[in-house]
Amino acid sequence: MGKRVGIIDEVRGIAVISMVIYHLYFDLVYFYGQDFGKIVDTIFEWWQPLIAGTFIFISGASSLFSRNNFKRGALCFFLGMAFTFATAFITPNAPIYFGVLHFLGIAMMIYGFIGRGTEHIPAVLGIILFAIVFVFTWNVPSGYVGFFGLFKIYLPANLYSAKLLFPLGFPSADFASLDYFPLIPYLFLFFAGASAGQLFKSGRAAKGFYMTRFNGLAWTGRHALIIYILHQPVLIAILELVFKLLGKRTMFL
Fold it and tell me: How many CA atoms lie within 13 A of 137 on its CB side?
């Protein structure tokens, strides 16, 4: 089935808009010293992983429709490395070492190599299984696995002292990154999305999933990558101008 799945474009569009709002908040707090209070901070603290998780799940679903996931992934990873070098100058205390673009790039390439094998798992079963493993491994970057605090199995400490295993999900105690989405646990969320993509591609999902109801959201979702690349420079330029006009501290002007 080759036609677009409207719900994928629209949900990605919502995630893009949410991301821009979150980064506006982040820039105001981190770069311009604004204080929005504990309640607002808590809302955004919980909102950020939800936004990223949506991108990851939807990217997994989109992989079923890609002609070349390896090429798509290589581009994402290259852009992620460009962000690493850029943030090394802008925020030298915490560059982006393995952010969402790095993760998506590697995940897409992994899917390009082995993803077709997972398509033998029934779609609904795949969604459930991968979601369970995702929840089980959620705290791997914190040193353990388990379910909702019911039990914890601590992982060997030498995995985290190795320093170079942070892309897998084993950051050292002194690891710092403004954006961090390791392969464990997020690869399982990506593959849960890929299982959902099987339903969409087969045409067995409800008809409403294929409809495009909001063209603006769908357009935004289809141009997510270019918006991701450009939105931060645009936000910073606008904030620099506004804060300069208000006679307040700026980063560059």
Answer: 18
Q: Is 211 helix (H, G, I), strand (E, B) or coil?
A: coil
Q: Is the dihedral of CA 164, 165, 168, 174 positive or negative?
A: negative
Query: Please, is 167 exposed, middle or buried when counting C-beta atoms within 10 Å of its C-beta (0-12, 13-18, 19+)?
Result: middle
The answer to whether the peptide bond before residue 185 is cis (omega within 30 degrees of 0) is yes
Structure tokens at 37: 């209070």
Q: What is the pLDDT of residue 251?
A: 81
Residue 30 host element (H or E): helix 6-30
Confirm if 231 and 19 have CB atoms less than 8 A apart.
yes
First CA to last CA distance, the chain: 52
DSSP class of residue 210 equals G
Question: DSSP assignment of 94-138, as one string?
Answer: S--SB-HHHHHHHHHHHIIIIIHHHTTS-HHHHHHHHHHHHHHTT
- What number is the average pLDDT over the span 49-61? 94
- pLDDT per residue as tens digits for the range 198-217: 999 888 888 888 998 999 99
Contact (CB, 8 A) for 14 and 57: no
